[in-house]
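Hi, here's the filled form for the chain we discussed.

Project: internal
Contact: R.S.
Residues: 60
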Amino acid sequence: MSSSYFFFSLAVGVATGAWAAYIMERKGHPRSWGFLLGFLLGLIGVIIAYVWKPKNNVPR
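And the returned structure, exactly as it came back:
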């Protein structure tokens, strides 16, 4: 495994983790859940965060 592939994969994981964390925060859930979803599952994690039901006390 080359080091450039490793760093590219790490950058993609951090980017998708940040994206999912932002989505989860907007829905009223902890950002850490979203980051873990996005980091570990990539775009599938972002999609899961997008369809996750928001908390009841979050204004739309």
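Let me know if anything looks off before we file it.
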